[in-house]
Amino acid sequence: MHKLLTDSPGQTMLLLGNEAIARGAIEAGVAFASTYPGTPSSEISLNLFQVSKESDLYFEYSTNEKIAMEVAAAAAISGVRSMAMMKHVGINVAADVLMTLAYVGVKGGLVILSADDPSMFSSQNEQDNRYYAKMAGLPLLEPSSVEEAKDMVAYAFELSETLQEPVIFRTTTRINHSTAPVVLGNMKPRITKGDFKKDPFNYVTVPAVARKLHVKLLKNLEKAEEIAETSQYNFTEGAGTWGIVCNGVSFNYASDAIRDLKIEQNVKMLRIGFSHPMPETLIKNFLKTCEKVLVIEEGEPYMEEKIKAFAQEEKLTLPINGKGNQLFSRLYEFDPGMARQVIANHFNIPYTPPQIPDLSDAPEVPQRPPNLCAGCSHRATYYAVKKAAEGMETIYPSDIGCYTLGFLPPLSMADIVVCMGASVGTSCGFSKVTDKKVIAFIGDSTFFHSGIPPLINAVFNNHNFTLVILDNGITAMTGHQPNPGVDMTEMNLSGYVPVSIENLVRAIGVPHVSVIKPFNVKKSVSAIREALEFKGVSVIISREPCMLYAKSLKKLRGNRFQITDKCKSHRNCINDLGCPAFYLRKGQVKIDADLCTGCSVCAQICPEHAIAPLPRPLPEAERGVAGKKGDKV
Amino acid sequence: MNITRLILVAVGGQGNLLASRVIGEAALLSGIPVRMSEIHGMAQRGGVVESAIVFGDAKSTIISDGEADMLVGFEPSETLRALKKANSKTVVITSLAPLSPFTVAIGKGVYPDLAQVQNIIRAKTARLIALDAVSLAKEAGNVMSVNMVLLGAMTQSKKLPISSEKMKEAIAATTKKAFVEINLKAFDLGFSAADKSA
How far is residue A416's CA from residue A398's CA, in Å, rounded to a whole number? Predict the structure, then answer.
């Protein structure tokens, strides 16, 4: 049985933040969940996916976040408790739904989880999604800890049903990826069947209806504000006159700092966990008891601006600070030491920060950036494209996925990355205004997610570029989730109908389509060359399973390779491929047999044919640490 | 309760997250408050994995520079990279088996000299326990047990509020059944190696 289905209320279990959120949803009787995977939200959906296999919870990996939200919205409108979860930038994709879904509302609880990523540990920006709640007019909840996250999810479902509105549940990476002991609660039964009752004058958002619905939304917002005033998630601690307002993880850093600085007697803290709409009376009353206020929030000055506006309305002139010089930054995530320092500065408390060792005499440590895996098919494709495009002036728009790592030397195969699908859209523009050969890269999952409309655009407007679809048969970057191209029988799941990328591309009317097997270097280079010479839209589908996924299915074949004494140290293998299985010992090129997966690309490009298969594959027990399954993105 | 802050750094695939899990379960078994966090953005792609573990009555789950009571590096150059987390009172444990980053092979960096790495750590912290965790793991019967060797060394240092018994109980409960015996042996080898380095 899945551990999140453990039916023993009161038991303490060590849970990852994302596991706690999934458990909270299960305790609340969530019956329907949909997602497009994205770090740092991915483990929530992974756990619900697993739970769905052994319960009547419906779960799906939707094709993108907009669809995930629409799917869940329909379930909630039909009265079924539903959840749609995504990373922060996923909300951008779903924003179109979100804005008008706020007007339409729901019947069953709908929790929309946005996993923000301050510091951009695995994202392309660090946008603060609290503004989405403000823009859409929806309630917003933000937990401070793993255990609070679990209980707050259940509260979010209740709140959603009280207001008949979706509720936005916003986390940050530091909540998603922290672990703490969590006390399990009771699990509500799931109600999996709903009913849709026709009500066109509330559901069909033609202008005349939408005008009424906006009035309803604003009324609901007033009701939400009333609830926020007395919500258990907005609370004060202490009775001093130095005010601290904080949210999310900042509450933890502020609490620890107050203890470390021994200023418990001086401080009064207001923790805002129900942060849209902001509890006006609660905040105004708080301000009236303070001499000076510090607002601690990662990201944008979302609370600070509102608190200053409240002070102005009350004609309060106390200093209120948050973001600024000597204060908190709008950049990156905070840490306990930083919060302690700023609190000490702001309230003039003597404080000596800890001594960070002086490392000026230490040797520089070589960088260890993430790299495409040994045996990654993307490396082979990049090599082949680079060879085929030799002599051409190129632009390489790329996209979001493992293959983005190809931007690093020695491959250097990405010139611009913006958002999901932008490789194809930007190619349309680049090919129009420059005379360079535009070659775009997109993964299979990202192609399904948002690469298809721009490809249709390219065909219709007769653009001139080559799109390489890196089809490794799985959504690899986020931990091997399914996408519409995946053969689900490999996961022992039935009832799915895989969509063929090749059929799709041909059906769109792309005039030049080819399919390559990238581990066959010579054939791939010549097929790519032909596609590059074509004037118009050409698509190359480079098909080879993700090595890690194949390994997890025990489908990795082929012998490992070694360097023989024919090696004359041209080092094309190292310098052109950048495969991490290679290393140098006393100036000699070597292959780490524990890392090599037998893709054979290096052997095909060695000018001396000095790379040869090892006589037999190493038994599993002799393989090194790097071959271990486990740590996932 | 006093707060103890522990940082673990490793290369993706070295079993850092499992080690953290064992420590968390051991704390739970001992009734000690514990919070942890991890950064493993692209661990399977050969990047660095860092875990922070905070014992005691703190709410924070991360550890600022200069504030770790113990720093454990699964790989020597990564221990050096993370040394800014330490201070003059920190106990540092490092494995001495290098995993050279690929940047070195393509000439974009030089792997630091191991003797120099140890001297620097010794000069700037309270105690260094250095051991070849890979050899000890192999001796125990599985090269993957590097994390268990280091758990043994951590426990020996007595810097963590967790007993040997609870740590072993957590290993038996958390790691795969087929490997428990080897893992416990690796733990003991790490424990006695740290004892000898005192």
Answer: 6
Q: Do A258 and A185 reside in the same domain of the chain?
A: no
Per-residue pLDDT of B41-71, as tens digits, reads 665 667 899 999 999 999 999 999 999 999 9
CATH of the domain at A274: 3.40.50.920
Query: Which residues of chain B lie closer than 8 angstroms to A403, CB-CB?
Result: none
- Tokens (6 digits) for A323: 């973001």
**Tens-place pLDDT, residues A402-440:** 999 999 989 999 999 999 999 999 999 999 999 999 999
User: How far is residue A127's CA from residue A107's CA, in Å, rounded to a whole number?
Assistant: 30
Residues 41-80, chain B, touching A (beta carbon < 8 A): 41-49, 58-67, 77-78, 80
Closest CA to A530 of A513, A517, A518: A513
Residue range of the domain that includes A314: 234-346
Name the burial class of residue A232, with classes exposed (0-12), middle (13-18) and buried (19+) by CB atoms within 10 angstroms of its CB.
Answer: exposed
Residues of chain B numbered 153-182 and touching chain A (CB < 8 Å): none
Mind giving me the DSSP string for A261-283?
Answer: TT-TTTEEEEEESEEES--HHHH
What confidence score (pLDDT) does residue A547 get? 94
How far apart are alpha carbons A221 and A163 in whole angstroms? 9
How far from the centroid of its chain's Cα atoms is residue A292's Cα? 37
Tell me the shortest Cα–Cα distance from A540 to chain B, in angstroms: 25
Q: Which of B29, B64, B45, B39 is closest to B174 using CA atoms? A: B29
Q: How many domains does chain A have?
A: 4
- The answer to whether residues A113 and A196 belong to one domain is yes
Three-state SS at A129: coil
Instruction: Identify whether the C-beta of residue A504 lies closer than 8 Å to the C-beta of residue A366.
Output: no
Query: Do A463 and A604 fall within a single domain?
Result: no
Q: Are residues A208 and A268 in the same domain?
A: no
The span from the CA of A475 to the CA of A485, in Å, is: 10
Superfamily covering domain B4-196: Pyruvate-ferredoxin oxidoreductase, PFOR, domain III (3.40.920.10)
Which residues are bridge partners to A440 per DSSP? A467
Judgement on whether residues A535 and A578 belong to the same structural domain of the protein: no
Could you tell me if A545 and A566 lie in one domain? no
Q: Under an 8 A CB cutoff, do B41 and A121 touch? A: yes
> B42: which chain A residues are within 8 Å (Cβ-Cβ)?
122, 370, 405, 477, 633
* Exposed/middle/buried for residue A459 (C-beta within 10 Å: 0-12, 13-18, 19+): middle
Write the CA distances from A72 to A78, A95, A112, A356, A552, integer angstroms: 10, 14, 9, 49, 31
Contacts (Cβ under 8 Å, ≥6 apart) of A112: A69, A72, A83, A84, A85, A91, A94, A98, A166, A167, A168, A169
Q: What are the mean pLDDT values of chain A's consecutive 10-residue runs (633 residues total)?
A: 97 98 98 97 97 98 98 98 98 98 98 97 96 98 98 98 98 98 98 98 98 98 98 97 98 98 98 98 98 98 98 98 96 98 96 93 92 95 98 98 93 97 98 98 98 98 98 94 96 96 98 98 98 98 96 88 95 93 90 92 97 74 40 33
C-beta atoms surrounding A50 within 10 Å: 16
Same domain, A544 and A568: no
Residue in A286, A267, A285, A271 with CA at minimum distance from that of residue A234: A271
**For the segment A171-223, what is each residue's pLDDT rounded down to a tens digit?**
999 999 999 999 999 999 999 999 999 999 999 999 999 999 999 999 999 99
As a whole number of angstroms, the distance between CA A328 and CA B172 comes to 45
SS3 A460: helix
